[in-house]
Design brief:
The chain is an all-alpha fold. It contains five helices and no strands. The mean pLDDT is 83.
Length: 133
């Protein structure tokens, strides 16, 4: 299988899984995926009222519309994002790592004393593949 076909297959499986999660979300009020959790809020009451087909049609249509919009945006943005990512050097990676640790430190929901430990553990796990001699 060629690379393009393999990526297309993976994208189709992902989109099918995400879009298929709305069926159980609407009909059973059990979200099949985290992305379809909000669909259960509106779709399940519609299904109980007898409007399940309308809810499924609306969900599938807008899932398709969102997928098309996302793919177009990805095709437009990806070359520019790749050009920026290629220019990243050691300084930029270090700055991004420090920013991530600081942001995670202040955004954490843990007690204040646990945040530095979580940041240190994340930093340690991030650098496991690097061997220092």
């Amino acid at each position: 299988m060629s690379d393009n076909r393999a990526i297309a297959l993976l994208m189709a499986l992902y989109i099918g899984g995400i879009s298929g999660g709305l069926v159980s979300s609407i009909l059973l009020n059990i979200p099949g995926t985290p992305a379809s959790m909000v669909t259960a809020f509106d779709g399940a009451p519609m299904a109980r009222k007898g409007e399940g087909a309308k809810a499924l049609g609306t969900g599938i249509f807008f899932s398709f519309l969102g997928t098309i919009f996302g793919l177009i945006a990805l095709m437009i943005i990806a070359p520019y994002l790749a050009a920026v990512a290629i220019k990243f050097g050691a300084f930029e990676y270090c700055a991004l790592s420090i920013f991530s640790l600081v942001a995670g430190h202040f955004a954490g929901r843990q007690r204040y004393g646990q945040r530095p430990g979580s940041s240190a553990a994340g930093c340690h796990l991030c650098h496991v593949r690097h061997q220092c001699f």
